[in-house]
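Reviewers of the previous submission asked for a worked example of the structure-prediction workflow described in the proposal, so we include one complete record here. The input consisted solely of the amino acid sequence. No template or homolog information was supplied to the procedure at any stage.
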Amino acid sequence: MSGYVRVFAHSNALLVSHVRNVLAAADIPVELRNMVLGGGAGELPLGECEPEVWVAPHNRERAEALIHAAMAGPGEMPGWHCPNCGETLEGVFDTCWRCGTPKA
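From that input alone, the workflow returned the following structure tokens.
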């Protein structure tokens, strides 16, 4: 996946994986980089060892908004109920995880 842009980097691989999951739930294709370079810290510059999340340029703005909302916590975006199946979803999700219906 060439031509992608970095939208998130952090030394905590679990946080990077969470961001990846948030974006994937919003149907944004994601590429993870540097997930196993943590052992190189000290040998390599720190900025080159941090796990990173990359997306296509046309998804950058939406991805950054979703990341910001996910990092801000639940108060930022209100939850919603799927109009098709009634599932309760967190505000960061644009599509119902249960039935795939888009947020109204």
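The radius of gyration is 15 Å. We consider this example representative of the routine output the project will generate in years two and three.
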